[in-house]
Amino acid sequence: MGACPASGWRANIVLYAALAANLGIAVAKFVAAAISGSSSMLTEGVHSLVDSGNQGLLLYGQHRATRPPDAEHPFGYGRELYFWAFVVAILIFGLGAGVSIYEGWQHLAAPEPLRDPLINYIVLGVAAVLEGSSWVIALREFGAAKGDMGWWQSVHESKDPATFIVLFEDSAALAGLAVAAIGIWASHAWGDPRIDGAASIVIGCILAAVATLLAREAKGLLIGERANPEVVACVRRILDSEPAIVRVNHVRTIHTAPDRIFVAISADFDDQLSMGAGEALIERIEQELKTALPMLSSIYIRPEKAEDAIPRSRSADRETARVCTLPT
User: Fold this and answer.
1) Where does the Cation efflux protein cytoplasmic domain lie (predicted)?
2) Engineered SS bond to 81: which of 22, 61, 146, 262, CB 3.0-4.6 Å?
């Protein structure tokens, strides 16, 4: 698991970069589509406009997620970001993919006369530079956060959807630009405007595939996902190092925000431990856990008898490290 997400400008640099790029690109694409009559260029304009709205929603979700806990939401509002991430996936599917496929179908059914494509090539080139810059920033930030994990595993394990959503959006945008460029060129090279409409449908299919993937990941976060295995293993190591704990029955975790985790622990305490000593032990364990894992925002430890508990070796206890170092 990587380090806790940063706050402020640094944490949102990916979103700000993508928002700035997409707003400028959307205007340029709509102007080019109006001049050239290109269906795929109009589709790309809608795509960039939807992406701009998506970045705005993610920034709004991050702002809402920072609200402190209250009586109605004792664990805070962190998971509101996951809700807006799911909304973003739906918008990509409904507006981005839906409009693209519809526009392409209309262009196939009623092809428009071909016009000078020069303005389209200029806009596509500028868009590729801007989208590529945003993509590089998102790739660099996500690569730094994933640590030693593989790319796909990191997406699946990530609890902060903002970075990987922008990365997938930008990847889809670059693929869409390539398809649009090929469609416009082929339409003029072979004198068939329907090819441009077919390119629009292909762009819509790319967006639909990306939206489906993002919706699946956002749904898992919204329902509630466990902490990464490294965090659970670290909690167990700290508990296992306590001589007064006979057995750790279970460690259950759930993310209440990208950088906040609720952990519930059931452990079998030594029968010889007095109530006062048990309370002191629990308080010390909680402090040790928060020191080792600052993302543990809420810790619940329940002394609970385990049937057929296996006493642990004291020598093994002494060999267990008390400080957990997570990969960064």
Assistant:
1) 229-304
2) 61
